[in-house]
């Protein structure tokens, strides 16, 4: 496993980070989830990403059980706050001081730890003053319950505003967690240059585009049995927009010779591709089976020659989504309830 600094800080994280968004606590039985975490540890992964909203808090509890016997100092545990949790009352969502404080303390109990290494604003909250949010984060950092602050799917302007307040409050905002893959490059024109200027890294989710970049979904054919596209507990909903685009599926198949040339699987190629971006500190991978983790970590440390990076661009052509406006669209103007 290779490690990279997270933003302009002294914290190193594993460039393959284990995430339990769509699986633990909902789609996968607990024993299988814990086995996947064990496989991640065995593969050298030290960084683990979750959120209070995943499976309505159950994912955090599963991760806490899986890591409880590990040396805490050898791990980097990330979680998030914003989306609705619990009974979803009026204050069970957003980035108000009340929700942040209550959510962090509940997350610490579920994760069975005294602190988290990275606490992330899961989206931008248009209904709470940014100053209120950042002061609450600062209080948690100064109390030692949070070491660093991050965000997820913030625009370049939001990053700039948040970073300025963090600096004023003497805390470190060092990461952003956006969607990023060879098919979804909306952060490249605005978010990445701003992040490089501010000393913020990307911890990217969906590097395999919900599984589309594995090449298992062929145009005009039914999804393979047992794949995410056949999962009725949420996975199918997440991938359906990609599967409706036959041209995308066709062009993805053109990546197979490139993967073969590098001695990689299609999934490994997709993960290695995002790691070629020097502003990316880590790619988040999930798993429902231990062998998926073992396979994905082989993307760590892979260097893709410039000539092959160009061939990937040529293969995907104009099906790549690049519009930076898509980042702003990921944050609702009103809180979800």
From TrEMBL:
UniProt keyword Oxidoreductase, yes or no: yes
Alphabetized InterPro entries for the sequence: K_chnl_volt-dep_bsu_KCNAB-rel (IPR005399), NAD(P)_OxRdtase_dom_sf (IPR036812), NADP_OxRdtase_dom (IPR023210)
Domain NADP-dependent oxidoreductase residues, every copy: 15-315
Cellular compartments per GO CC: cytosol
Source organism, top-level taxon: Bacteria
Keywords: NADP, Oxidoreductase
GO molecular function: oxidoreductase activity
One Pfam family linked to the record: Aldo_ket_red
UniProt record similarity statement: Belongs to the shaker potassium channel beta subunit family.
Name recorded for this polypeptide: Aryl-alcohol dehydrogenase-like predicted oxidoreductase
